Amino acid sequence: MLKYLNMNCGEIVKKLESKKNPKNVEGMARFGIRPKTKVFGVPVPELRKIVPMVGPSRILDKVGTKSIGKNHELALKLWDTKIHEARVLAGMIAEPDKLTASQIKKWVNDFDSWDVCDQACMNLFTKSEIAKKKIPEFAQSNKEFVKRTAFALMAALAIHDKKMGDGDFIKFFSIIKKASSDERNFVKKSVNWALRQIGKRNKNLNQKAMKLAEEIKKIDSKSAKWIAGDAIRELTDKKTLKRIKL
């Protein structure tokens, strides 16, 4: 049985600080994680261990469970600490059904590293209909990490959302193609990620994604050619094809 400690924001920050590791911070920087916020160097597996300590976000009543929102309030407080690891943790404990458009906009505009962006997409935004609907908006942004959010969310949905149909992902193709000429590192890598994950979802999407990759390959852009070439390599890989039974 899990023992819920119901830790508050201050206690969590102290716990994070007690686990700080300067060598990890240096290693993170080598992988392109150089946020403007304070960084302790606490790895994601350690952050996941803290999640059960914050207490349940739902209570049992006569008709089932209902959200009490305590974890969501805590997540908002953790985000406002401007501590890198606290923000990753916030994305793990926030409640998707309590997210508002303004909260999503604030968080996305605060993104200053690819890992906070990607963790929020995988752990939280995939479960929020509001966030999903904002993909086209994010994709048009001039801000590097806001734009990355659009494609990181596409990739995360391709991995985790089993209810979405092929048509839902095909609607993303024009957005992917348009963004493929963006030379910024964290954008082009997320565009590539989205294309690869969609193409690995099933046989039909593999074929559709391959066709899109061939179209992108013809664009006069180093970024586009890299995105397409890398995607084609993975989407034609024997292991990939075996998994989707092509």
Mean pLDDT: 92
At CATH level 2, the architecture of the largest domain is Alpha Horseshoe
SSE pattern, N- to C-terminal: HHHEEHHHHHHHHHHHHH
Strand content: under 5%
List low-pLDDT spans. 58-62
The residue fraction in helices comes out at 55-70%
Strand arrangement across the biggest beta sheet: 1-2
Q: What would your notes on this structure say?
A:
The protein is mainly α. It has two domains: 1-98, no CATH class; 113-246, Leucine-rich Repeat Variant. The chain has 16 helices and two strands. It has helices at 9-18, 22-30, 44-50, 70-80, 84-93, 101-110, 114-123, 129-133, 135-139, 144-160, 166-170, 173-179, 185-199, 203-217, 222-235, 238-243, and strands at 58-61, 64-67. The termini are far apart.
What does this entry show, briefly?
By secondary structure, this protein is mostly helical. The protein has helices at residues 9-18, 22-30, 44-50, 70-80, 84-93, 101-110, 114-123, 129-133, 135-139, 144-160, 166-170, 173-179, 185-199, 203-217, 222-235, 238-243, and strands at residues 58-61, 64-67. The protein folds into two domains: 1-98, no CATH class; 113-246, Alpha Horseshoe (Leucine-rich Repeat Variant).
